[in-house]
Amino acid sequence: MRAKPHPAAPASPVARLHPRNRHQGRYDFPALVASSPELAAFVSRNAHGDESIDFADPVAVKALNRALLKQVYGIGNWDIPPGYLCPPIPGRADYLHCLADLLATDNGGEIPRGPAVRALDIGVGANCVYPLIGHAEYGWRFVGTDVDRRALTCAQAIIDANPGLAQAITLRRQPADDAMFEHVVQAGERFGLTLCNPPFHASEADASAGSRRKWQNLGKAARGGRAPTLNFGGQQAELWYPGGEEAFVGRMIAESAHIPGHCLWFSSLISRSASLPAVYRALRQAGVYDSRTITMAQGQKQSRLVAWTYLDPAQRAAWWRRG
């Protein structure tokens, strides 16, 4: 007998980072600059007298990410082309820590670590951030997929430039714009989890409007009539999809029903709480056995991930025994 999808967990009054997240509190800029001296050019005192960077400047944000990945996770060579998504590192780490806890629920409370855990990153992007952090924190192996050839070329360059990553991270191109698992999941493959940061917006116009709102929230104004720059960047496939995240995740859920035994837990970030009802309907239509909604901190806003499985508790408990 199948269980009903788990309802949304109540939102906590204050969103906090996961206890294992290494990015608690303010950024330690002296330590970051010591690890990555190029960051020093972007660090200054803000209105409160604290050291910070201009988070509306995409070059400064990229320099901060490079320093964080080097100092915290030992990634010595990381770069992305201009205009590609440069994600906030603390929020991305939170997603992985929450997934680790989820895997532990089917493993006697112990987080499974090491190369026996394989994860599938749908939309790995040029930044390759989830595989980099997930391997550094837990020793997991990753398969990262993307429709963008240039993004995959850049991600592969990061892998090749850091010793040991080539054995842990494999990249595959998704040849179909509307496919998620089809074409990239091979016969007989098993993944402990899948993860995804889906396109948030429904169109390029929505993405541009979101950028303007972000600039307003940062106290910035467009100069010379120019549109504000996306401080975290992003290409079309990274930022928008017809129907937005509801349609993207709905398609992902529908496809997952065709490979129910290939994965222990499927998952995706969900940026808008308003998207959850449509996601829950898709889960019911797909006939999942169970699902979980986990709230997280993503910068200054609250986000959540939704995870689902087609396996019953006995099947999940036996997953790791199979190896």
UniProtKB/TrEMBL annotation:
Region (Disordered): 1-20
Gene: rlmF
Purpose: Specifically methylates the adenine in position 1618 of 23S rRNA.
InterPro entries in the cross-refs: METTL16/RlmF, rRNA_lsu_MeTfrase_F, SAM-dependent_MTases_sf
Protein name, as recorded: Ribosomal RNA large subunit methyltransferase F
SUPFAM superfamilies tied to this protein: S-adenosyl-L-methionine-dependent methyltransferases (SSF53335)
Enzyme class, broadest EC rank: transferase
Keywords recorded for this protein, A-Z: Cytoplasm, Methyltransferase, rRNA processing, S-adenosyl-L-methionine, Transferase
Keyword rRNA processing among UniProt keywords: yes
E.C. code: 2.1.1.181
Primary location: cytoplasm
Subcellular location: Cytoplasm
Similarity remark: Belongs to the methyltransferase superfamily. METTL16/RlmF family.
NCBIfam families in alphabetical order: PRK11727.1 (NF008725)
Entry's Gene Ontology molecular function annotations: 23S rRNA (adenine(1618)-N(6))-methyltransferase activity
Origin organism lineage: Bacteria, Pseudomonadati, Pseudomonadota, Betaproteobacteria, Neisseriales
GO cellular component, one term: cytoplasm
